[in-house]
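[recover] target loaded
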């Protein structure tokens, strides 16, 4: 099963993708996680991406497409994967099509978590507080000002990606404002074909 999770930052993509991983045994390929790991490790990609990520802007298509191309070659991605946070631009969506086509593969489903953007800043403030209370590191880009920049990048560059898949009949919209377990149930229903 090859899936994509779309939706603005803070929509719950990471949380829901982790649940699909547990249930369906396919890896979650989060470009945000991969980039954060590259930053932490101080790799050449990480050095280029660090300041861009801290500002809330998007890392270049070239870098992100490169890391996804490498990642889907890994053995664990052979049986499928969930892309979380990618594609974020039309160029990324087209590059993904080309990558998959060159391997004779295709996408099964594109899920979009629909949320009320006016509630997202509250959600992200809560996420930061919860991480802090649990003794986990708080993402620098979860600062409300940076988060607003991330939301602007989403609306400017990423919002066009859903219509791209909708035009091909591959998009399923899920109400992401409901409680987490209900969102999971709606996703499982959609994946089961209902
Ligand atoms: P995320 O964890 O998905 O919210 O991503 C955190 C940050 O990583 C984003 O704000 C971007 O700076 C960068 N990033 C993650 N995925 C992508 C992508 N597909 N294209 C460009 N930048 C990305």
């Amino acid at each position: 099963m090859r899936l994509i999770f779309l939706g603005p930052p803070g929509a719950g993509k990471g949380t829901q993708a982790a649940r699909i991983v547990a249930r369906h045994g396919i890896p979650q390929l989060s470009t945000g996680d991969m980039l954060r790991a590259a930053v932490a490790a101080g790799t050449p990609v990480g050095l280029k991406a660090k300041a861009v990520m801290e500002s809330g802007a998007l890392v270049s298509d070239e870098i992100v497409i490169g890391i996804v191309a490498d990642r889907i070659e890994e053995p664990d991605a052979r049986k499928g994967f969930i892309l979380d946070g990618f594609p974020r631009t039309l160029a990324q969506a087209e590059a993904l099509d080309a990558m998959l086509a060159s391997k004779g593969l295709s996408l099964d489903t594109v899920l979009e978590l629909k949320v009320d953007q006016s509630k997202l800043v509250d959600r992200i403030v809560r996420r930061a507080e919860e991480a802090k209370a649990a003794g986990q590191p708080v993402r620098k880009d979860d600062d409300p000002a940076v988060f607003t920049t991330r939301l602007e990048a989403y609306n400017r560059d990423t919002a066009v990606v859903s219509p791209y898949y909708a035009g091909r009949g591959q998009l399923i919209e899920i109400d992401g404002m409901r409680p987490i377990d209900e969102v999971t149930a709606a996703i499982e229903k959609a994946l089961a074909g209902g």
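[recover] notes: The first strand starts at residue 2 and ends at 6.
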